[in-house]
Design a protein that fits this description.
The complex is a heterodimer of chains A (481) and B (420). With 481 residues, chain A is α+β, with helices and mostly antiparallel strands. Chain A contains 15 helices and 19 strands. With 420 residues, chain B is α/β, with parallel strands linked by helices. Chain B has a five-stranded mixed sheet with strand order 3-5-4-6-7. In chain B, strands 9-8-10-11 form a four-stranded parallel sheet, with helices on both faces. In chain B, strands 1-2 form a two-stranded antiparallel sheet. Chain B starts with a strand and ends with a helix. The chains are: A alpha+beta (481), B alpha/beta (420). The interface between A and B is large, with 45 and 42 residues. Bound molecules: flavin-adenine dinucleotide (FAD) and iron/sulfur cluster (2 copies).
Chain lengths: 481, 420
């Protein structure tokens, strides 16, 4: 609980309209997309400048109050939620663009700028911001930095950290710093690299200098339809083995296709076992040649249908389906759990078979939509929290799924980050000494442990406890009606 | 029977609530989120609040009511949502609950009561309009505007500012039946609407004429009342149902289609089947509803060239409520010589939203501000939009900001291009 004086002080910094302190308002901030994990903040502050963020953090530091940054709340890890209460700092009112410097191909923006808006702002002049998480129409660039977000096109262009030149941050110690520079070369310690992916546990990002890329001369998008995910993943391996660097290689299985078609209607063939969305970009002549080769490979891997988008509208629709999938989960299930494990690409067919077997054993539906090109799986385990026992089975399956991926030489998370959801799983990947070192690094930025406590590391250095999941509250059945 | 803070009847659709996966894809499309950046004033946050009320985690408090009242009911979130959350319906059901159990500010209740008690009743509205016309023509309006009296009562000023010149309010009565002139395509019933009927009677006249040219025999029942849209959005569900039944009865005389030229009416009428669940006539009625632009987009009309640069604003209840975007544009593009400039964010609410601009003045003004600056960017001198509320709101916004544009209903522009 925050004292009235504290709230007054907060309102003095961000203005009375910049504080949310009503129980109803706070409640709506209690979770990100992973509604499984809930924790409402004691207050939400909506600052409009880095200076205000600095003042808020210093106030919390003085009073020992937890600080939880939040962008658009699209995270899927229990990240932008406040398990220990405290002040949530929302960046939704920090949406200025400070500079677009096309000569040096970079832009400096506030963290609340929406990913896709940045691309829209420079597209006419021939540039784009490469990291394209499927949530790009809504997620914030600050959130992208904090989670080191990936996206379909990261196969060719790399993930967020490859596109951040510098960051302005307010650390957990209350300092306002600039890390990195305009130049691509990093002098001294690569603190930008440390900050990106730190999920708000080191500080709050208050400005980002990002790299902009030239739009490719031409783009070609191909939809290949298969009768099974195995055929599709064999195709992916063959494409890569042929030395083709596709811009994106995305795979959806049958349940995922069903959800997309019901929710978006992207023209994927319903009932197909899998579709592969392949995109090529670059000089026109080059991609024409590559496209021919890809069509050949798809054919020899038993593709049932191969469709090349004929115009920009068709291409956009194909992508709309892929990018809208997460939002269309509601067409499949009421509740879900999600993994983000990465397996070596060569093991994709094997991994999918193993995961399907696990979910079948637990009598649960699993849907797959994955970045096939880099072996980043997103198995979605569907369950109904209102059916007794299903949650337990889902959690069990979830755990087994992850272990199966790790056993194949994979890693815990590919792009979503750790948050509360995967904190305990870090132990599957790192040893005690590694984790202890990370905790010490965290202390350098955040000596008293106020920044986003309970996230990322298995136990927080300041309190040494692990967080347990709060099971979803279930709506009573409508049977009484 | 209670479920959390709610009870029967008209319990918010639980499956609709469950369909929300909290992904946030709808956020950037929400006008109030765009302005405030707050979760509880976003679609995702509002659904979360409704869910929490059903779970008994929050009550129907004044704060709860405030966040739901601030919603424009524009349904842009529905268009954006891949999970198919029926937000409009959830909102109306929840507002119904608020009406019955809630804490609404007195001023809200008073104003809502006044407007909702006025518009649907031809007799009452006509008497009031006679007074307004007197107010405008006697010079009293100039006096009042100059006196600064309106500053003392901002809500009154909101109403006053919206009034179009009412020179022609005493419209010629339309005949009950207009014969088809073109190749006969069917029999259409024309819904006159409340705002349209009194503020823009000419739009109704022109709609009838164009329908007839397009080959429709037009039936215009004399005894038709309000469609109940405003009541529906305010959560006065029983009143809305009464109006719905009345309108269905008024058009019972064998029409193939029911035509609306006000997006708000059309959108509400398409929902009759849901609100009068179990009444097969209601479902059939809903299936027959068409917006005028749908019927004219490919009709045979004798149009002559007209040099004009126009832009089109998507009324929420056409673009989001009825998913109609292509037809009005196609219709305008049929006028030879017309240049249609796309309006940026053409489907972002202008802030009119039924009686919203009277109740939530500040938010409505900020959205109007945004709309007017977008219109200014197009350079067009003619703005076209198919909902009388939007016409009033946008016209006032442009007038007050000194932007010289004409705001028209599509049929008005089309009628000017008719060559006969
Ligand atoms: C439909 C959908 C599709 C998705 N697809 C992808 C995908 O393809 N690839 C992918 O990587 N992710 C994806 N995600 C997950 C999510 O969108 C990303 O993690 C995104 O980067 C989160 O951004 P946000 O603004 O919503 O951050 P939030 O969810 O608000 O926050 C995420 C984390 O970052 C922290 N944070 C936020 N802002 C700041 C800041 N300014 N400073 C410090 N810390 C901060 C928060 O505390 C939290 O821990 C998807 C999500 C959805 C809903
Ligand atoms: S309403 Fe739809 S788009 Fe919005 S958060 Fe819920 S599921 Fe996502
Ligand atoms: S109806 Fe409009 S204002 Fe209301 S939540 Fe949806 S998008 Fe926002």
């Amino acid at each position: 609980m925050l004292t009235p004086e504290f709230l007054r002080e907060l309102a003095r910094i961000v203005g009375p309209a910049g504080v949310v302190a009503t129980p109803e308002g706070r409640l709506t901030y209690e979770c990100d997309m992973h509604t499984f994990y809930k924790g409402a903040p004691d207050a939400v502050a909506l600052p409009t400048s880095a200076e205000q963020v600095g003042e808020v953090v210093r106030l919390c530091l003085r009073e020992g109050i937890p600080v939880v940054p939040r962008g658009s709340g699209t995270g899927v890890i229990g990240g932008a939620m406040a398990p220990r209460g405290g002040v949530m700092v929302s960046t939704t009112r920090m949406t200025r663009t400070f500079e677009v410097d096309l000569l040096n191909r970079c832009a400096t923006v506030e963290p609340g700028v929406i990913n896709l808006q940045l691309t829209h702002a420079v597209k006419d002049r021939g540039y784009f911001f490469a990291p394209d998480p499927s949530s790009q129409m809504v997620c914030s660039i600050g959130g992208n930095c904090a989670t080191n977000a990936g996206g379909p096109h990261c196969l060719k262009y790399g993930i967020t950290v490859n596109h951040v030149l510098g960051l302005q941050v307010v650390t957990g110690a209350g300092e306002l710093l600039w890390l990195g520079s305009k130049a691509r070369e990093r002098v001294g310690y690569d603190l930008t690299g440390v900050m990106v992916g730190s999920e708000g546990t080191l500080g709050i990002v208050t400005a980002v200098r990002v790299r902009l890329l030239h739009l490719p001369e031409a783009v070609k998008t191909i939809l290949a339809v298969f009768s099974s995910v195995e055929d599709a993943s064999e195709t992916v391996s063959a494409i890569i083995a042929a030395g083709i660097i596709a811009a994106a290689l995305e795979c959806l299985d049958e349940p995922a296709i069903r959800a997309v078609e019901e929710g978006i209607g992207a023209g994927y063939p319903k009932g197909a076992g899998a579709v592969l969305l392949i995109e090529l970009d670059g000089p026109r002549a080059e991609i024409e040649a590559q496209a021919e080769k890809i069509v050949e490979i798809c054919r020899s891997h038993l593709a049932l249908e191969i469709r090349v988008a004929q115009d920009e509208a068709e291409r956009e629709l194909l992508w709309k389906g892929r990018k809208g999938f997460a939002g269309a989960i509601g067409r499949l299930t009421r509740n879900w759990l999600l993994q983000d494990a990465v397996v070596p690409r060569s093991k994709l067919p094997q991994a999918i078979r193993a995961l399907n077997a696990i979910s079948a054993r637990h009598r649960l539906l699993v849907a797959h939509v994955f970045h096939a090109g880099d072996g980043n799986l997103h198995p979605i385990i569907c369950y109904d929290a209102e059916q007794p026992g299903e949650l337990e089975r889902a959690m069990q399956a979830n755990e087994e799924l992850l272990r199966a991926c790790i056993a194949m030489g994979g890693s815990v998370t590919g792009e979503h980050g750790v948050g509360v959801d995967k904190a305990a799983n870090l132990r599957l990947q790192y040893g005690e000494a590694d984790l202890a070192f990370m905790a010490r690094l965290r202390q350098v930025f955040d000596p008293t442990g106020i920044m986003n406590p309970g996230k990322l590391l298995p136990s927080h250095p300041a309190c040494g406890e692990t967080l347990s999941a709060v099971p979803p509250q279930s709506l009573p059945q409508g049977a009484w009606v | 029977m209670k479920l959390g803070a709610f009870d029967l009847p008209d319990l918010p659709d639980l499956d609709g609530i469950r369909a929300c996966v909290h992904c946030g894809i709808c956020l950037p499309q929400c006008p109030t989120y765009r302005v405030l950046g707050e979760e509880m004033d976003s679609p995702r946050g509002r659904i979360y609040l409704i869910r929490a009320a059903a779970e008994g985690r929050v009550g129907i408090t004044e704060t709860f009511t405030h966040h739901l009242d601030l919603c424009l009911g524009c349904r842009a979130c529905e268009t954006a949502c891949p999970s198919g959350v029926p937000f409009g319906r959830l909102l109306e059901q929840t507002r119904g609950q608020i009406e019955r159990h809630g804490h609404r500010r007195l001023s809200h209740r008073f104003l809502a009561g006044l407007t909702l008690g006025l518009f649907p009743y031809p007799g009452r509205l006509a008497r009031l309009l006679a007074i307004v016309a007197l107010y405008q023509h006697s010079g009293l309006q100039r006096l009042v505007r100059a006196s600064g009296l309106l500053r003392l009562a901002p809500r009154l000023a909101a109403m006053e500012g919206l009034l179009p010149p009412l020179g022609s309010w005493r419209a010629r009565e339309l005949p009950e039946l207009v014969q088809a002139t073109g190749r006969r395509r069917g029999r259409a019933g024309l819904v006159l609407g409340c705002v349209q009927r009194y503020f823009f009677p000419r739009v109704n006249e022109l709609t009838a004429r164009l329908l007839s040219l397009a080959g429709y025999e037009v039936l215009i029942p004399r005894d038709q009342e309000c469609c109940g849209a405003l009541h529906l959005h305010a959560g006065r569900l029983d009143q809305a149902r009464r109006f719905a039944r009345g309108l269905i009865a008024a058009f019972d005389g064998g029409v193939d289609l029911v035509v609306a030229n006000a997006a708000g009416c059309g959108s509400a009428m398409r929902e009759y089947g849901h609100w009068l669940d179990g009444d097969p006539r209601a479902r059939q009625f809903s299936l027959r509803v068409r917006d005028i632009s749908e019927l004219l987009a490919d009709a045979e009309l004798p149009l002559r060239p007209m040099e004009v640069t126009a832009t089109y604003h998507d009324p929420c209840h056409l673009a989001h409520g009825q998913r109609i975007r292509r037809e009005p544009r196609a219709l305008l593009n049929r006028i030879p010589g017309l240049t249609l400039v796309e309006l940026a964010e053409s489907d972002l609410c202008c802030g009119s939203a039924g009686i919203y601009n009277l109740l939530e003045r500040e938010m409505a003004e900020r959205l109007l501000e945004l709309k007017v600056s977008r219109i200014a960017e197009t350079g067009a001198r003619t703005v076209v939009t198919g909902n009388p509320g939007c016409v009033l709101q946008i016209a006032r916004g442009c007038r007050e900001r000194g932007l010289a544009v004409e705001v028209l209903h599509p049929v008005e522009l089309l009628a000017r291009a008719l060559s006969y």
